[in-house]
Amino acid sequence: MISDASAAAKETSLAAQMIARLWSATLPVYRKQSSLQSFVHLPQLFAQSFIESLSLPLGEQKPLTQSIALVDDDFHREMDIVAAQEAYANKPRTRVYEGIDVRSDGWFSLVSLQFARLTRCRVVCTLYESNAGDSTLGSHVDAWFGAIVQMHGCKTWTLWHPEAKKPIELMTRPGDVLLMPPTVEHSVATPNYSVHLVFAIIDNEPIIG
Predict the structure, then answer these.
(1) Are 190 and 130 in contact (CB under 8 A)?
(2) Residue 183 pLDDT grade (very low, low, confident, very high; cuts 50, 70, 90)
(3) Does residue 2 have a pLDDT over 80?
(4) What are the residue boundaries of the structural domains of the chain, listed by start?
(5) The pTM is what?
(6) Is the pLDDT of residue 115 over 60?
(7) Torsion angle, alpha carbons of 142, 82, 151, 168, to 10
(8) C-beta separation of 42 from 170 below 8 A
(9) What's the confidence (pLDDT) of residue 137?
(10) Could you tell me which residue, 164 or 113, shows the higher pLDDT?
(11) Alpha carbon of 155 to those of 81, 110, 176, 182: distances in Å?
(12) Distance CA 123, CA 146 (A)
């Protein structure tokens, strides 16, 4: 838990600002996701200056409890930051900071808790960090509804819509939000550098009681 009272108050305030805007944008899309076959892109839902000021458990800021998975066609997991850096140098891949809502501590943990309370489902927050040319998972469909927030840099998305003759490409920039139902096939690329968060709402793990 966040130990310092002033730091805790700051993180709580940041989380409140995030969830208020993010949930109001997510709710109408999430409610009709069973009939929704496409994504929703919300440019500049948050001010870039606000988003880029938020702390994240990246690199040297990673707590000892936070794992890093290097991801492409397989997963290579490390707890030690130096070992993760060496593995990345050997094979550049997207770095996935898994479950930062429970393995790290900060405003993102509080946002995840609020999402879980509002949706009555388990919510997992994961951080993705990529450089240009990093290997990725390739085209895939996720098993959850994702509220994706671009934190730093840019990410290029290729998305398949069932009614479109060819895939749709878009770019997310800091402050953009992409809402992704689990029916949408997609792949990603990184023009230069990118950090984005995914708040994954896992519908098949409801909170009972």
Answers:
(1) yes
(2) confident
(3) no
(4) 5-202
(5) 0.93
(6) yes
(7) -40
(8) no
(9) 83
(10) 113
(11) 24, 25, 10, 19
(12) 10
State percent of the chain over pLDDT 70. Answer: 96
Buried-exposed string 53-70: b where 16+ CB fall within 10 A, e elsewhere: ebebbbeeebeeebbbbb
* Neighbour tally for 160: CB within 10 Å: 18
CATH 2.60.120.650 correct for 5-202? yes
1 pLDDT more than 60: no
Record the tokens describing residue 63, joined without a space: 């707590």
pLDDT average, residue stretch 62-78: 91
For residues 119 and 32, which has the higher predicted lDDT (pLDDT)? Answer: 119
